Fold these 2 entries.
Entry 1:
Amino acid sequence: MLTLKSIHTYYGSIHALKGVSLHVRSGETVALIGANGAGKSTLVSTICGLVKSRKGTVEFQGKNINGYSPEDIVREGIALVPEGRQIFSTLTVEANLQMGGFIHRRNGRQMLQDMERMYERFPILRQRSQQLAGTLSGGEQQMLAISRALMARPELLILDEPSMGLAPLIIKEIFNIIRELREEGRTILLIEQNARAALQISDRGYVLETGKMVLQGEGAMLLEHREVKRAYLGKGAKQIWEA
Amino acid sequence: MPIWQPDKECMSRDQLQQVRLERLQSTLNRVYRNVSFYHRRFKDIGFSPEADLTDIKDLERLPFTTSLEVSESYPYEMFAVPLREVVRVHSSSGTMTNPRVVGYTRQDLKTWRNLVARILSAGGVTQDDVIQVTFTYGLLTGGLGIHYGAELVGASVLPTSVGRTERQIKIMQDFRTTVLVSTPSYALVVADCIEEMGLDPKTFSLKYCICAGEPWNEKMRTEIEQRLFVKATDNYGISEVIGPGVAGECLEQAGMHLQEDHFYAEIINPQTGAVLDPGEEGELVLTTLTKEAFPVIRYRTGDLCRLIPEPCTCSRTFWRMSRIKGRCDDVVVIKGINIIPERVGDVLQQVKGRRPVYQLVAIRQGHKDQLEIWVEVTEELFFDKMREQRALVDVMRQKVANFIGITPRIKLVESGSLERENGEVKLFVDRRQNS
């Protein structure tokens, strides 16, 4: 579904992605793990058209989407749950969802149905639908961010660090949500520092290191992998990071 | 026959292309960082894996790795992980001063096991089989390589290792072995021995014979199949790359499926190093895509074969490779003529219909080189009458002379007397320096 070939992206003079290739097949959950500064978020920005790659191709459903505007990329069917949630905190929850469905704004009935579905999935959002999004707790905000992305009816959902800044118990809930989305047959690209939890719910994973791919494989294989364990899982981290 | 990993072995070529690109990039990034040999080499030609590999074809810019270089890295120089990550070490049979040493991480062993399971499944093996492994167990990769793959398939494994043929046959009969894993020539030794023991191979439970370890041909296959009442398949492995599991034939018996998601194969002209088009015959060059402890980049196997890009009816999408036609580095030059010892064997085989045990010996008399072919005497080749004996030798000499263009001297020697290495007769011995 999504195929990246030898992507090079620069931030000014910084060579952030150095020939990165990756693919996500329809129905797969793929994790991208790596330390801070490895280039994970740059990769997300490149896919979503927020930064332009200098070399390489991004193909989505057989179409080269290099150089598309972020808006067009959403229209093609890629929705992002951004790092740090980035909800519109001064708007109501409802308005946030409407913004998520922006590309379908001419189809009022579908929008209402979709919103209803989100409220069914996250009843707490229904309760808070008229509240300003900024007043929500971290976990609720994350649910809102996910719902907002789903409102675009994406073919591919990209989650950038969904566990960041959340309490362990909430992280567990967020990962349960991702697991549910996966079981619904959605295609997911999951970017995470929380390697263990991410790999546990993924079919495959990639390890990015200073802008380069150094390892890839099935989720279970990477979980067992000595290098991954040492670098990203750490000893005794199990209790904290188990999700 | 079931396919061990249909989602992998039958993936579309497009998908395969992407998987290989990703894996190759990771492999190059890793060897550049971890193996000083490759780091130096890449630097020498100004190749940076991150900038210069955008397509798998870019690999062609890199120099080859030769068996001599691997030998010189003895023992651990070319390992890409610290020794503490290595859980198994094997070494290849070597004619060079140092054997070629290869290591495996925990993950490598898993990969290996799985690849062997693929080729065994392709050759007909299932969990219901009793499989007798007559490869050497030990430092060589053959025995243990097949062993763990067979266990993964779920077959009952008989690790009988090599030799003691009569005992092998007793086990084969009593334990109701259904799959024999052996070199093709040993399969025939087994057939001979069964005959000598006065047993009927039809009463055995054998169904399949998985052959590897030496070049062979269709004639031998037919003989193995007819005499042991099995279906025989060919497979290819090489220690420096992983061991058994690189490629294996399916029951269509029309070439060995290369495990292309784990190895990238090129065929080159052994003289010029130029990459040849698919379908052309040349030297097989392999690059590992997932090996961790001992990755090799563009390793020259010295084996001659060709790739078969046409799809196979078994629905696997991986390209096949033809039988190994011989070793390109064993090309023997006598009186300016190139001779591949295996080819001489084919000619000798025509004489009596059976491949004799033979050895090419180059000697020097004065300043003249001479080719001798030493043939071990068997009952078939032995005659009471001198005249008949001489006639046989004459036929052999003429056939070989017609084939290679020089007239050899044929010597009949005692059975079992030829110089052997790891149980196999050395096909060529060069005595030109000593005499």
Entry 2:
Amino acid sequence: MTSEASPRVDASEDLPPASLILSPRDSGRLRESFDLETSATLQGELLDFSAWSEILTTYGRTMRVAVALTDSQGQILGKCHNAQPVWQLVHDAARSWGSGCPFCLTTHVPCTAVAEALKTGGAVMVRDQAGLTHVAVPLLLGKLRLGAIIAGQVFDRYPDPLLLRRVAKEFGVSAQRLWELAREQRPVSDAILQASGDLLCALGNAFLRQRYGAILEAKLAETNGRFRLLVEGVRDHALFTMDPTGRVTSWNGGAERLLGYAEAEIVGQNFSCIFTREDIQNHVPEKQLNQALEEGRAENEGWRVRGNRNRFWANVNITAVENAGLARGFAIIVHDVTEQRKIATVLEEARQERECLQEKLISHVSHELRTPLTAIYLFTTNLLDGVFGDLTPAQHEHLTFALDNVKQLKSMVGDLLDITRVETHKLTVDPQHLSLAKLIDDVLSTCLTNAAVKNITLRSDVAPGIPFIWADPARVRQILINLIDNGIKFASAGGNVTVATRPAENESFLCLSVSDTGCGISRENREIVFDRLSQVRSTAEASRTGLGLGLFISRELVSLHGGRIWVESELGHGSIFCFTLPVFSLAKLCAHVLTAPNLEAGCVVLIAVEVAAVEGAVQADLLLEIRKVLERCIRPGLDVLLPSMSDAQPVGTFFIVACTDDKGFEVIASRLVRELQNFDSASKLKPVISSTTLLLAPGPFGEEQIADVAARVEQLVQAHLLGKERRKWLKRKF
Amino acid sequence: MAEKKILIIDDDQHLLLALTARLKAKDYRVICAADAISAITVARREVPDLVILDLGLPAGDGFRVLERMRDLTDLVAIPVIVLSARDPADNKKRALDAGAVAFFQKPPDNHEFLSAIRHALGETVALSTFLRT
């Protein structure tokens, strides 16, 4: 048996041969949407013989050859043949072909035609010993070698009787009969055989590709149908598509149900019809499409309108559909979330109601507690203050304890109220110029009784010359008392609690610390001590007093001042609670009057009011009264009455920064004098009012000038208090 | 100087008892009223020098009493100190705006409260109380 690569058929010198024109190798251009190599099902479908039999039969009849379809291994998938006598005779005689080639009139040598054809990619012609010829053509799809078609069992020349006899003997048929049948067959020339092989090759591959296309189409249609079913089946979401201009191109059943338009009436319309009139006027539809174009998608919630003009709260998802950088349109999903929104609103209302109720409850409780507390307080203090006569030392002592408990109750009731304020954001602080040293001394003396009970020493380690702070004195007091009481609670008997100042990270803040010699706080508890209602349980400390709100409220108060609070501690080594408060700044205090419009009046002056009184020092209470009188004289927004800038002895000098002109100063001065005279009918105060100019208008004005003015005010005030440079002041006596 | 007359308007009998004792010890004359209506009647009859007013009262709250006092020429000049268990955050400004001279939350600090009473009675205007001789 011989096999040879197909010789070229030169039908014409000028034209490329048919085999080239129809070459299956061109199928490389075929787009492979499916992974053919792994899709055995698809390969089976492609080579389904029932589909091939018609075309192969037609070919066989026309060309008077037998035709078979094989897979890539050469296994026959199906065959059809015309009534070829030789073929018929041999095949009727053969019992089984096994894996052999039915086209070869031999049972023992495997036919290599299929393998050869798949390897070369072209038609391969094989001639057997009897002079019978067959052609194998490959079926190729892209790079994939799918199988082959074999056609043949024709003589390419007049048969050789000797060879025929050998075949007849091999198959056990009559040599005479074989010869007679063979002689009736007309031989086909090599060239024609070759051309018909090429034709078969082209035909087979064309059919294969057609089949491939048909299968893909069927699959696509199936997927499309499934997708359409899915889209249509979505009932609670409206799904629709639009062209780039916002006109609806498709509309699912969910959209019909949700938005109330039938597909027929909405397709082609602009999707803005589902928006409210206000939204359309505000160009919301266009804005959303633009956002989707820019960001790929846009999600939003809002009112949309159904066909029957009913509104519903919608969650809308717009996705821009692009192809090769060109906007092809939009896909939109609309979901009715009115119910969810209703639920959320109801939940929010419930939360607010609960909060309101809680606030009412707590303020009611605190109110109701205060009434009996007041009675107890008044009765106790009446007795202690001797309203009903002198007490024995024991009576006095016991009543003092009662009073301490009343005070403790009072502060707890206050804490309760503060907690509600924190939750309703009503907790406020009223910052003012504040001297810490005094306040700390005051607080320590308040806490003394408590500390004495446990034999705990209270110490103050405040650095001299600490700056004034800008804070609410009552609240700072509250924070310090909370921290000190806390320290006393945790310090073991005989220990001490120290209030100290330490440098803050930031110059505009002052850092205060309250340290105790108690049991300390573990790392995990350090995180939670400032949380609400946290009371760290420790074995060493069995007794607990208070509500566990002190640190929580302290943290809120410190942060309302703009500072922060933290704790440094180690188990067994005591704790240090630190917090920061803003430092007083003259510039900040003056900033609100030192404005460009105020300066247009003329100038900024510093006015000093001295009431350095009669003989001896002026009492602090009187100074407070005089301050109140002066507060009534200043014009809010134009003048500032400076806080007492000295920490030492009370001084009878007050300073006012005023934005005014010369005449305006006269007006203020006479007003000050009048009010002071009203207050002081006996004319004992003998006020001296003097002024000095700080800044003349017009001029550049900004933060720098404010800082300058503040610095000069500070300097002048200090100098004035020290009795220096008084010459520069314009003095008026009354 | 004649004894100053102070009217306490509060519905808590114990508070009235305790505060009366305290103020009488300071040589003030004390009269009491326990509801908003009798408060005005008593005030018009007695014309006190100072009124100490609770806000939560039967028959109309303390603000009604304040308003009524500001409407009546014989009562308009009488200083009123509000002493209430209510939250000062919500009530202090309102009370001062309505004409009260001071607001104290219960329980008040005795020292501050008594000095406010003195001040309201005009006793602090006498500089001699401040100035050392």
